[in-house]
Amino acid sequence: MSISLCMIAKDEEENIGRALESIKDVVDEMIVVDTGSTDSTVKIAESYGAKVYYFEWNNNFSDARNFSLEKASGDWILIMDADDEFVREDAQKLIDLTKKDGVDAYFMETLSFVGDRPGYDIVMNLNVRLIKNKKEYRFLGTVHEQIACNIMAVNKDARIETARIKFYHYGYLNKTVSEKNKRRRNIELLEKSLELEKDNKFLFFCMGNEYLALKDFSKALEYYMKTYENFNPDTGYSPHLLARMAICFDELEMYDKEMEIINLGLGIYENFTDLEFLKACLYHRQNKFTLAIKSFKRCIEMGEPPSNLALMAGVGSFKACCALSEIYLDMKDYDEAYKCCIEALKLNPGYTPCLYIIAEALFKKYERNMDIDYIKSALEDLFGGRLDGRACMALSNVFYKQRKYDIAYEYITKAEKLMGQSPEILYYKGTCLFYLKNFNKAIECYKKIKSGEFYQRAINKLFLSHILTNNTRRAARLLSKDKEIIGNKTVLVYKTFKEIMEGKNCKPVSADKDESREYLSIILDLLNILLKISEFDIFEKALQFLNLIESDEVLLGLAKLYYVNGFYQMAYNELIRSIKIFDRIDAEGIEMMRNILAGTV
């Protein structure tokens, strides 16, 4: 039985080659419908032998998909995006499915990478990937288009099964989402669809997902609650709805509601490990260590959930082991924390969060008799003693987090020799030099980064490096040149800091309470950097900032800043002042006071 690949694409020159390369030996023809590319997408597709057709974009994904289906000649159609990658190990399984009688379509697993780079942060979904080539089987919906419901509507005897065949999806990495403004585009298309279908629960669910990705948890929950009305547990997206509602409740600190929805879900879907994992995380957050340990161990017993329930990769294996290690770390049981991390790494050798916990456990265990060489050797052994560039970068980040900037610099320099210069390596190398107070060399590294994510991350330290080397003119030019990248509020804070350093009288930054909350976050970031590089005289001068905004959170924020930097008595004093002057304290502040009084920090 023959297979036609059908794909729609626009400006996907960075991705489409990977997608076609992954599937070219499995399918009999490749159909690529271009919706208006201005880059090399079409040229790359043609180099792989794909048949390229053109479709004038009309803001309707289903129309474009259906146009691609019309061009397919195979017995079966495989649906992929240009930013997908087929897992080649599943090739024979995919071919075998086409020989099976009585099935009209297959759901398959999509593992979407999220965050800064492909790695262990993965969101899992089921999508229809393989369908019989029948002219009546077509997509519906302008965005988040669906085909399963149409197949069942036009053929009541149709069978749709689930196959454990995997595709990686790269389209929701931070860089791609930001560059293509995917979330705003999707929201606009969903809003237009909701004008026509005001009570469509699936559209509500999709809208909630977009706002969740934007971290607008209140707005996401608003749409999820509309989806939740007259809840039907048999609807395909219902398990994920409950998990996403729990995540929103957690972020909004509505913990009773979170536990209620988790328990409801576990009562319906007994194999839904993700919900058990969220429950364990909630117990941990509430310092209910015994319950958290029991719940994470339950996750490991449950294992990974079935495909129709899975949302977060690793909750029944390596992530649960790593989460257990964090609890043992909090309990100061460093040996048990180490053992759990080793178990997690056996399950997923690339799960780098374990490195940070192992390092923390080793530093805590040997803090009175610190043997840096032993700790370095123990961490290098986790890579089999053979360090490539990525391993050196990971170790650099581990020691950076422990504020061992000299060792972090040592490893990032090794990574540079093995991998060459890149914006990422230059940024971390420059930042190690910055915290080692070698500001001139830090400037040299930062200036080699011309644009992009790491340039944006370097700007604040580049500005401070100029200030701390008494080059206020260059600092001013930087603010002027990159005002749009830095942002107006940050620019105002930095300009005010420059004036403080020059001994000038400064105007108030903001008299508005809501606006001052945004400024406070930027100011505290700046103050934190000054504390970390031990510029205490400059830090004292910069405290003037707290009198230039109108906020009752300044002392609480300052207390937390002192606490994370190890100045516990000063933190305690500011917490007391915050209560007396502003009547402001929160759960985190109360926990800090407990720890300080108990002498556990």
Protein model, in words:
- It contains 30 helices and eight strands.
- The chain has helices spanning 16-23, 41-47, 61-70, 91-97, 148-154, 174-180, 182-196, 201-213, 217-228, 238-251, 255-268, 273-285, 289-302, 318-330, 334-347, 353-365, 372-381, 389-401, 405-419, 423-435, 439-447, 453-468, 472-481, 483-486, 488-501, 513-532, 536-542, 554-564, 568-582, 587-598, and strands at residues 3-9, 29-34, 51-54, 76-79, 84-86, 105-113, 122-132, 160-169.
- An eight-stranded mixed beta sheet has the order 3-2-1-4-7-6-8-5, sandwiched between helices.
- The N and C termini lie far apart (66 Å).
Name some characteristics of this structure.
single chain; 601 residues; alpha/beta; eight-stranded mixed beta sheet; 8 strands; 58% helix; globular
Any chance you could write out the topology, listing elements then pairs?
Layout: E1 3-9, H1 16-23, E2 29-34, H2 41-47, E3 51-54, H3 61-70, E4 76-79, E5 84-86, H4 91-97, E6 105-113, E7 122-132, H5 148-154, E8 160-169, H6 174-180, H7 182-196, H8 201-213, H9 217-228, H10 238-251, H11 255-268, H12 273-285, H13 289-302, H14 318-330, H15 334-347, H16 353-365, H17 372-381, H18 389-401, H19 405-419, H20 423-435, H21 439-447, H22 453-468, H23 472-481, H24 483-486, H25 488-501, H26 513-532, H27 536-542, H28 554-564, H29 568-582, H30 587-598
Parallel strand pairs: 1-2, 1-4, 2-3, 6-8
Antiparallel strand pairs: 4-7, 5-8, 6-7
Helix pairs in contact: 7-8, 8-9, 9-10, 10-11, 10-12, 11-12, 12-13, 13-14, 14-15, 14-16, 15-16, 18-19, 19-20, 20-21, 20-22, 21-22, 22-23, 23-25, 26-28, 28-29, 29-30
